[in-house]
Amino acid sequence: MTRRDYLQAMAAAAAASAVRTPAWASGGDADRAQRMKWWHEARFGMFIHWGLYSTLGRHEWAMENEGIPVAEYERLALRFKPKPNAARDWARLAKQTGQKYMVMTTKHHEGFCNFDTKLTDYCAPKRGPGRDLVKEYVEAARAEGLRVGFYYSLMDWHHPDGARCATDEQARRRFVDYIHGQIRELLTNYGKIDVLWYDVAWPLDAQGWESEKMNEMVFGLQPEIVVNNRNQLPGDFATPEQRITAGDRAWESCMTLNDSWGYNRGDDNWKPPKTAIRNLIACARDTGNYLLNIGPKGDGSIPEESVRIFGRVGKWLERNGAAIYRSEKCQPRTSNYAGFTRIGNTLYMHVYFWPGGTVSMGGLRNKVKSVRLLASGTEVKFDRDGFRLRMTGLPEKAPDRPVTTLAIECDGEPQQDTLYVRNERPRDKV
Ligand code: GLC
Asked: Are residues 52 and 127 in the same domain?
Protein backbone atom coordinates (compact mmCIF):
# COMPACT_ATOMS: atom_id res chain seq x y z
CA MET A 1 0.00 0.00 0.00
CA THR A 2 1.41 3.40 -0.95
CA ARG A 3 1.25 6.29 1.45
CA ARG A 4 -1.49 7.88 -0.66
CA ASP A 5 -3.58 4.69 -0.67
CA TYR A 6 -3.11 4.46 3.06
CA LEU A 7 -4.28 8.03 3.66
CA GLN A 8 -7.25 7.52 1.39
CA ALA A 9 -8.18 4.34 3.21
CA MET A 10 -7.91 6.13 6.57
CA ALA A 11 -10.06 9.01 5.34
CA ALA A 12 -12.68 6.58 4.05
CA ALA A 13 -12.69 4.73 7.38
CA ALA A 14 -13.06 7.99 9.31
CA ALA A 15 -15.93 9.10 7.06
CA ALA A 16 -17.66 5.74 7.49
CA SER A 17 -17.38 5.86 11.27
CA ALA A 18 -18.54 9.49 11.34
CA VAL A 19 -21.84 8.66 9.70
CA ARG A 20 -22.40 5.43 11.55
CA THR A 21 -22.71 5.80 15.30
CA PRO A 22 -23.05 2.30 16.62
CA ALA A 23 -26.56 1.77 17.97
CA TRP A 24 -25.21 0.42 21.25
CA ALA A 25 -23.16 3.55 21.81
CA SER A 26 -25.81 6.05 20.79
CA GLY A 27 -27.31 6.27 24.26
CA GLY A 28 -23.97 7.64 25.42
CA ASP A 29 -22.96 8.23 29.00
CA ALA A 30 -26.45 8.84 30.36
CA ASP A 31 -27.62 5.51 29.02
CA ARG A 32 -24.56 3.81 30.42
CA ALA A 33 -25.02 5.35 33.88
CA GLN A 34 -28.59 4.13 33.86
CA ARG A 35 -27.71 0.60 32.74
CA MET A 36 -24.89 0.34 35.24
CA LYS A 37 -26.62 1.72 38.32
CA TRP A 38 -27.36 -1.69 39.85
CA TRP A 39 -23.90 -2.91 38.90
CA HIS A 40 -22.15 -0.07 40.71
CA GLU A 41 -24.26 -0.55 43.80
CA ALA A 42 -23.66 -4.30 43.81
CA ARG A 43 -19.91 -4.22 44.48
CA PHE A 44 -19.63 -7.98 44.91
CA GLY A 45 -20.33 -10.84 42.52
CA MET A 46 -19.65 -14.57 42.17
CA PHE A 47 -17.66 -15.91 39.24
CA ILE A 48 -18.24 -19.59 38.40
CA HIS A 49 -15.87 -21.61 36.25
CA TRP A 50 -17.47 -24.89 35.31
CA GLY A 51 -16.97 -27.14 32.33
CA LEU A 52 -15.37 -30.39 31.22
CA TYR A 53 -12.14 -29.40 32.97
CA SER A 54 -14.07 -29.61 36.25
CA THR A 55 -14.27 -33.39 35.80
CA LEU A 56 -10.48 -33.57 35.45
CA GLY A 57 -9.79 -31.30 38.41
CA ARG A 58 -6.51 -30.02 37.09
CA HIS A 59 -7.28 -26.37 36.25
CA GLU A 60 -9.33 -24.98 33.37
CA TRP A 61 -6.26 -24.77 31.12
CA ALA A 62 -5.57 -28.54 31.33
CA MET A 63 -6.40 -29.16 27.65
CA GLU A 64 -3.86 -26.62 26.46
CA ASN A 65 -1.18 -26.88 29.11
CA GLU A 66 -1.10 -30.68 29.15
CA GLY A 67 -1.36 -30.87 25.37
CA ILE A 68 -4.43 -33.14 25.48
CA PRO A 69 -5.57 -34.13 21.95
CA VAL A 70 -9.02 -32.88 20.97
CA ALA A 71 -10.43 -36.39 20.45
CA GLU A 72 -9.24 -37.51 23.89
CA TYR A 73 -10.55 -34.36 25.57
CA GLU A 74 -13.93 -34.72 23.87
CA ARG A 75 -14.49 -37.98 25.73
CA LEU A 76 -14.80 -35.96 28.93
CA ALA A 77 -18.09 -34.66 27.58
CA LEU A 78 -19.56 -38.13 28.03
CA ARG A 79 -18.29 -38.42 31.58
CA PHE A 80 -19.63 -35.01 32.61
CA LYS A 81 -22.76 -35.96 34.57
CA PRO A 82 -23.46 -33.28 37.13
CA LYS A 83 -26.17 -33.66 39.72
CA PRO A 84 -29.44 -31.91 38.83
CA ASN A 85 -29.68 -28.23 39.69
CA ALA A 86 -26.22 -27.94 41.21
CA ALA A 87 -26.47 -24.23 40.48
CA ARG A 88 -29.04 -23.83 43.25
CA ASP A 89 -26.30 -24.39 45.81
CA TRP A 90 -24.07 -21.83 44.10
CA ALA A 91 -26.84 -19.26 44.03
CA ARG A 92 -27.69 -19.89 47.69
CA LEU A 93 -24.05 -19.52 48.61
CA ALA A 94 -23.74 -16.30 46.60
CA LYS A 95 -26.80 -14.90 48.35
CA GLN A 96 -25.48 -15.84 51.80
CA THR A 97 -22.11 -14.36 50.91
CA GLY A 98 -23.67 -11.00 50.12
CA GLN A 99 -22.94 -11.24 46.41
CA LYS A 100 -25.47 -9.50 44.19
CA TYR A 101 -24.73 -11.09 40.84
CA MET A 102 -23.27 -14.20 39.28
CA VAL A 103 -21.21 -14.74 36.15
CA MET A 104 -20.97 -18.33 34.89
CA THR A 105 -18.87 -19.80 32.10
CA THR A 106 -21.29 -20.67 29.33
CA LYS A 107 -18.33 -21.76 27.19
CA HIS A 108 -14.70 -21.66 28.27
CA HIS A 109 -11.62 -21.94 26.04
CA GLU A 110 -12.13 -25.73 25.77
CA GLY A 111 -15.09 -25.00 23.48
CA PHE A 112 -17.68 -27.13 25.27
CA CYS A 113 -21.02 -25.32 25.55
CA ASN A 114 -22.92 -25.61 28.81
CA PHE A 115 -25.98 -24.29 26.97
CA ASP A 116 -28.27 -25.57 24.26
CA THR A 117 -27.01 -24.53 20.86
CA LYS A 118 -28.03 -25.38 17.35
CA LEU A 119 -24.53 -24.58 16.12
CA THR A 120 -22.63 -27.56 17.55
CA ASP A 121 -23.27 -30.96 19.10
CA TYR A 122 -20.51 -30.28 21.58
CA CYS A 123 -22.91 -29.03 24.20
CA ALA A 124 -24.44 -30.14 27.47
CA PRO A 125 -27.91 -31.22 26.24
CA LYS A 126 -26.36 -33.46 23.57
CA ARG A 127 -23.57 -35.01 25.66
CA GLY A 128 -23.14 -36.39 29.20
CA PRO A 129 -25.27 -33.92 31.13
CA GLY A 130 -28.26 -34.43 28.79
CA ARG A 131 -29.71 -31.08 29.76
CA ASP A 132 -29.14 -27.34 29.51
CA LEU A 133 -26.87 -26.32 32.40
CA VAL A 134 -27.09 -22.63 31.62
CA LYS A 135 -30.88 -22.76 31.92
CA GLU A 136 -30.54 -24.32 35.38
CA TYR A 137 -28.05 -21.66 36.35
CA VAL A 138 -30.22 -18.78 35.15
CA GLU A 139 -33.22 -20.13 37.04
CA ALA A 140 -31.17 -20.67 40.19
CA ALA A 141 -29.75 -17.14 40.16
CA ARG A 142 -33.16 -15.58 39.59
CA ALA A 143 -34.69 -17.69 42.36
CA GLU A 144 -32.28 -16.02 44.80
CA GLY A 145 -32.91 -12.55 43.36
CA LEU A 146 -29.42 -12.31 41.88
CA ARG A 147 -28.45 -10.67 38.63
CA VAL A 148 -27.39 -13.05 35.87
CA GLY A 149 -24.11 -12.84 33.96
CA PHE A 150 -22.76 -14.96 31.11
CA TYR A 151 -19.05 -15.49 30.65
CA TYR A 152 -18.27 -16.48 27.06
CA SER A 153 -14.82 -17.29 25.71
CA LEU A 154 -14.20 -16.08 22.18
CA MET A 155 -11.04 -18.16 21.99
CA ASP A 156 -11.96 -21.77 21.23
CA TRP A 157 -9.50 -24.69 21.31
CA HIS A 158 -12.04 -27.15 19.96
CA HIS A 159 -13.51 -25.43 16.93
CA PRO A 160 -11.64 -26.41 13.74
CA ASP A 161 -11.41 -22.75 12.69
CA GLY A 162 -10.50 -21.46 16.16
CA ALA A 163 -6.82 -20.94 15.29
CA ARG A 164 -6.70 -20.91 11.51
CA CYS A 165 -9.18 -18.02 11.44
CA ALA A 166 -6.11 -15.84 11.93
CA THR A 167 -4.66 -16.71 8.53
CA ASP A 168 -7.55 -18.04 6.43
CA GLU A 169 -10.38 -15.66 5.55
CA GLN A 170 -12.93 -18.39 4.89
CA ALA A 171 -12.15 -19.94 8.24
CA ARG A 172 -12.49 -16.55 9.89
CA ARG A 173 -15.88 -16.02 8.27
CA ARG A 174 -17.16 -19.38 9.48
CA PHE A 175 -15.74 -18.96 12.97
CA VAL A 176 -16.98 -15.41 13.48
CA ASP A 177 -20.44 -16.45 12.29
CA TYR A 178 -20.34 -19.31 14.78
CA ILE A 179 -19.31 -17.09 17.68
CA HIS A 180 -21.79 -14.32 16.86
CA GLY A 181 -24.45 -16.99 16.39
CA GLN A 182 -23.82 -18.46 19.82
CA ILE A 183 -23.88 -15.07 21.49
CA ARG A 184 -27.20 -14.45 19.74
CA GLU A 185 -28.54 -17.74 21.11
CA LEU A 186 -27.36 -16.95 24.62
CA LEU A 187 -28.99 -13.54 24.60
CA THR A 188 -32.20 -14.76 23.00
CA ASN A 189 -33.06 -17.96 24.82
CA TYR A 190 -32.80 -17.16 28.53
CA GLY A 191 -34.78 -13.97 29.09
CA LYS A 192 -33.16 -10.88 30.52
CA ILE A 193 -29.40 -11.20 30.98
CA ASP A 194 -27.59 -8.60 33.05
CA VAL A 195 -23.90 -9.02 32.19
CA LEU A 196 -22.03 -10.35 29.17
CA TRP A 197 -18.46 -11.20 30.11
CA TYR A 198 -16.37 -11.87 27.00
CA ASP A 199 -12.98 -13.50 27.46
CA VAL A 200 -9.75 -14.01 25.50
CA ALA A 201 -9.93 -12.59 22.00
CA TRP A 202 -6.98 -14.59 20.64
CA PRO A 203 -6.21 -14.84 17.74
CA LEU A 204 -8.18 -11.95 16.21
CA ASP A 205 -8.43 -8.22 16.77
CA ALA A 206 -11.62 -6.15 17.04
CA GLN A 207 -11.89 -5.93 13.29
CA GLY A 208 -11.39 -9.67 12.85
CA TRP A 209 -14.06 -10.45 15.47
CA GLU A 210 -16.34 -7.74 14.07
CA SER A 211 -16.65 -6.64 17.66
CA GLU A 212 -18.65 -3.48 16.95
CA LYS A 213 -21.24 -5.54 15.14
CA MET A 214 -21.10 -8.04 17.99
CA ASN A 215 -21.89 -5.37 20.60
CA GLU A 216 -24.53 -3.85 18.36
CA MET A 217 -26.27 -7.22 18.21
CA VAL A 218 -25.89 -7.67 21.98
CA PHE A 219 -27.48 -4.32 22.80
CA GLY A 220 -30.14 -4.90 20.17
CA LEU A 221 -31.15 -8.11 21.95
CA GLN A 222 -30.59 -6.91 25.53
CA PRO A 223 -30.80 -3.11 25.71
CA GLU A 224 -30.10 -3.02 29.45
CA ILE A 225 -27.14 -5.36 29.50
CA VAL A 226 -23.65 -4.42 30.71
CA VAL A 227 -20.67 -5.75 28.72
CA ASN A 228 -16.99 -6.02 29.57
CA ASN A 229 -13.94 -5.05 27.55
CA ARG A 230 -12.54 -8.38 26.44
CA ASN A 231 -13.78 -8.43 22.86
CA GLN A 232 -11.15 -5.79 22.06
CA LEU A 233 -13.54 -2.88 22.61
CA PRO A 234 -13.73 -0.78 25.79
CA GLY A 235 -17.30 -1.91 26.58
CA ASP A 236 -18.84 -0.74 29.85
CA PHE A 237 -16.19 -1.83 32.30
CA ALA A 238 -12.55 -2.85 32.58
CA THR A 239 -11.50 -6.23 33.98
CA PRO A 240 -8.26 -6.20 35.97
CA GLU A 241 -7.46 -9.84 36.68
CA GLN A 242 -5.97 -11.08 39.97
CA ARG A 243 -5.16 -7.50 40.94
CA ILE A 244 -6.97 -4.41 42.16
CA THR A 245 -6.28 -1.48 39.91
CA ALA A 246 -8.66 1.43 39.92
CA GLY A 247 -9.27 2.93 36.50
CA ASP A 248 -10.85 6.15 35.27
CA ARG A 249 -13.84 4.16 34.12
CA ALA A 250 -15.93 1.43 35.69
CA TRP A 251 -13.90 -1.62 36.66
CA GLU A 252 -14.28 -5.02 38.23
CA SER A 253 -11.42 -7.03 39.70
CA CYS A 254 -11.87 -10.73 39.15
CA MET A 255 -9.98 -13.07 41.43
CA THR A 256 -9.61 -16.71 42.28
CA LEU A 257 -9.94 -17.96 45.84
CA ASN A 258 -6.92 -20.26 45.41
CA ASP A 259 -4.74 -20.12 42.27
CA SER A 260 -7.16 -21.70 39.79
CA TRP A 261 -10.43 -20.66 38.19
CA GLY A 262 -11.57 -24.15 37.28
CA TYR A 263 -11.59 -26.92 39.90
CA ASN A 264 -8.02 -28.00 40.66
CA ARG A 265 -8.10 -30.74 43.28
CA GLY A 266 -4.53 -30.23 44.49
CA ASP A 267 -4.58 -26.45 44.69
CA ASP A 268 -4.63 -25.73 48.41
CA ASN A 269 -3.45 -22.14 48.20
CA TRP A 270 -6.70 -20.78 49.62
CA LYS A 271 -6.92 -17.13 50.54
CA PRO A 272 -8.03 -16.61 54.11
CA PRO A 273 -11.42 -14.93 54.57
CA LYS A 274 -9.58 -11.84 55.79
CA THR A 275 -7.79 -11.49 52.45
CA ALA A 276 -11.06 -11.77 50.54
CA ILE A 277 -12.61 -9.14 52.81
CA ARG A 278 -9.62 -6.82 52.44
CA ASN A 279 -9.82 -7.19 48.67
CA LEU A 280 -13.51 -6.33 48.74
CA ILE A 281 -12.75 -3.25 50.86
CA ALA A 282 -9.97 -2.19 48.48
CA CYS A 283 -12.36 -2.47 45.51
CA ALA A 284 -15.14 -0.63 47.34
CA ARG A 285 -12.77 2.19 48.33
CA ASP A 286 -12.21 3.04 44.69
CA THR A 287 -15.76 2.24 43.54
CA GLY A 288 -14.80 -0.98 41.77
CA ASN A 289 -16.50 -4.35 41.92
CA TYR A 290 -15.04 -7.62 43.21
CA LEU A 291 -15.85 -10.78 41.28
CA LEU A 292 -14.76 -13.70 43.41
CA ASN A 293 -14.54 -17.15 41.88
CA ILE A 294 -15.67 -20.65 42.73
CA GLY A 295 -14.66 -23.68 40.67
CA PRO A 296 -17.30 -26.38 41.28
CA LYS A 297 -16.31 -30.01 40.81
CA GLY A 298 -17.55 -32.09 37.89
CA ASP A 299 -20.67 -33.10 39.82
CA GLY A 300 -21.40 -29.44 40.49
CA SER A 301 -20.55 -29.47 44.20
CA ILE A 302 -18.56 -26.56 45.56
CA PRO A 303 -15.17 -27.29 47.15
CA GLU A 304 -15.57 -27.27 50.94
CA GLU A 305 -12.92 -24.63 51.44
CA SER A 306 -14.77 -22.23 49.16
CA VAL A 307 -18.00 -22.78 51.07
CA ARG A 308 -16.23 -22.16 54.36
CA ILE A 309 -14.41 -19.01 53.22
CA PHE A 310 -17.42 -17.53 51.44
CA GLY A 311 -19.46 -18.24 54.57
CA ARG A 312 -17.08 -16.17 56.69
CA VAL A 313 -17.15 -13.31 54.21
CA GLY A 314 -20.94 -13.41 54.15
CA LYS A 315 -21.22 -13.29 57.93
CA TRP A 316 -18.89 -10.30 58.04
CA LEU A 317 -20.92 -8.53 55.35
CA GLU A 318 -24.14 -9.12 57.27
CA ARG A 319 -22.69 -6.95 60.00
CA ASN A 320 -20.64 -4.54 57.89
CA GLY A 321 -22.21 -4.43 54.45
CA ALA A 322 -23.44 -0.88 55.10
CA ALA A 323 -19.83 0.22 54.54
CA ILE A 324 -19.44 -1.62 51.22
CA TYR A 325 -22.52 -1.52 49.00
CA ARG A 326 -23.07 1.84 47.30
CA SER A 327 -19.65 3.02 48.48
CA GLU A 328 -18.36 6.24 46.97
CA LYS A 329 -14.86 7.26 46.01
CA CYS A 330 -12.86 7.47 49.22
CA GLN A 331 -9.86 9.76 49.53
CA PRO A 332 -8.37 8.66 52.89
CA ARG A 333 -6.13 5.63 52.44
CA THR A 334 -3.16 5.80 54.77
CA SER A 335 -2.97 3.48 57.77
CA ASN A 336 -0.66 0.71 58.87
CA TYR A 337 -3.50 -1.47 60.04
CA ALA A 338 -6.69 -0.44 58.30
CA GLY A 339 -8.36 0.19 54.97
CA PHE A 340 -11.10 2.76 54.29
CA THR A 341 -14.37 3.17 52.48
CA ARG A 342 -16.77 6.10 52.38
CA ILE A 343 -20.47 6.74 52.00
CA GLY A 344 -21.54 10.37 52.16
CA ASN A 345 -19.80 12.04 55.10
CA THR A 346 -19.16 8.78 56.91
CA LEU A 347 -15.69 7.32 56.76
CA TYR A 348 -15.44 3.62 57.49
CA MET A 349 -12.16 2.52 58.96
CA HIS A 350 -11.75 -1.22 58.51
CA VAL A 351 -9.17 -2.39 61.04
CA TYR A 352 -7.65 -5.66 59.88
CA PHE A 353 -4.70 -5.71 62.33
CA TRP A 354 -6.24 -4.73 65.64
CA PRO A 355 -3.81 -2.55 67.63
CA GLY A 356 -5.51 -2.75 71.06
CA GLY A 357 -7.55 -0.27 73.12
CA THR A 358 -6.79 2.80 71.01
CA VAL A 359 -7.15 3.10 67.25
CA SER A 360 -5.64 6.19 65.64
CA MET A 361 -5.68 7.84 62.29
CA GLY A 362 -3.38 10.64 61.09
CA GLY A 363 -4.23 13.67 59.00
CA LEU A 364 -8.05 13.54 59.02
CA ARG A 365 -8.95 17.15 58.22
CA ASN A 366 -12.63 17.01 59.16
CA LYS A 367 -14.41 17.58 62.38
CA VAL A 368 -15.76 14.32 63.72
CA LYS A 369 -19.36 14.14 64.93
CA SER A 370 -19.46 10.57 66.20
CA VAL A 371 -17.73 7.21 66.04
CA ARG A 372 -19.47 3.85 66.29
CA LEU A 373 -18.49 0.23 66.00
CA LEU A 374 -20.42 -0.66 62.88
CA ALA A 375 -21.21 -4.28 63.78
CA SER A 376 -22.74 -3.53 67.20
CA GLY A 377 -23.65 0.15 66.91
CA THR A 378 -21.71 0.83 70.13
CA GLU A 379 -20.58 4.45 70.54
CA VAL A 380 -16.82 4.90 70.69
CA LYS A 381 -15.07 7.70 72.60
CA PHE A 382 -12.70 9.82 70.59
CA ASP A 383 -10.50 12.91 70.74
CA ARG A 384 -9.02 14.81 67.90
CA ASP A 385 -6.56 17.57 67.23
CA GLY A 386 -5.69 18.77 63.73
CA PHE A 387 -3.21 15.94 63.29
CA ARG A 388 -4.64 12.86 64.90
CA LEU A 389 -7.96 11.22 65.59
CA ARG A 390 -7.81 8.80 68.51
CA MET A 391 -10.60 6.37 69.21
CA THR A 392 -10.25 5.18 72.76
CA GLY A 393 -11.68 2.82 75.34
CA LEU A 394 -11.85 0.01 72.83
CA PRO A 395 -11.35 -3.65 73.77
CA GLU A 396 -7.82 -5.06 73.75
CA LYS A 397 -8.97 -7.81 71.41
CA ALA A 398 -10.63 -7.04 68.08
CA PRO A 399 -14.38 -6.76 68.73
CA ASP A 400 -15.25 -8.05 65.26
CA ARG A 401 -13.45 -10.62 63.13
CA PRO A 402 -11.70 -10.95 60.81
CA VAL A 403 -11.96 -7.15 60.37
CA THR A 404 -13.43 -4.55 62.76
CA THR A 405 -15.13 -1.58 61.15
CA LEU A 406 -15.45 1.84 62.78
CA ALA A 407 -17.98 4.28 61.35
CA ILE A 408 -16.57 7.81 61.66
CA GLU A 409 -19.19 10.43 60.98
CA CYS A 410 -17.62 13.68 59.77
CA ASP A 411 -18.91 17.19 59.16
CA GLY A 412 -18.16 16.97 55.43
CA GLU A 413 -16.59 14.64 52.91
CA PRO A 414 -13.73 12.92 54.74
CA GLN A 415 -10.30 14.12 53.67
CA GLN A 416 -6.97 12.86 54.90
CA ASP A 417 -3.83 14.93 54.45
CA THR A 418 -0.70 13.19 55.62
CA LEU A 419 1.52 15.93 54.20
CA TYR A 420 -0.22 18.37 56.51
CA VAL A 421 0.96 16.25 59.42
CA ARG A 422 4.48 16.15 58.05
CA ASN A 423 4.71 19.88 57.35
CA GLU A 424 2.70 21.44 60.14
CA ARG A 425 3.20 19.30 63.21
CA PRO A 426 4.94 21.31 65.95
CA ARG A 427 8.45 19.96 66.36
CA ASP A 428 10.77 20.13 69.25
CA LYS A 429 12.98 23.22 69.53
CA VAL A 430 11.99 24.74 66.19
C1 GLC B 1 -7.98 -15.74 31.90
C2 GLC B 1 -7.90 -17.24 31.77
C3 GLC B 1 -9.15 -17.91 32.05
C4 GLC B 1 -10.07 -17.29 33.05
C5 GLC B 1 -10.10 -15.80 32.95
C6 GLC B 1 -10.89 -15.13 34.06
O7 GLC B 1 -8.33 -15.10 30.77
O8 GLC B 1 -7.47 -17.61 30.50
O9 GLC B 1 -8.92 -19.25 32.30
O10 GLC B 1 -11.33 -17.73 32.75
O11 GLC B 1 -8.85 -15.30 32.92
O12 GLC B 1 -10.71 -13.76 34.05
From this structure: yes
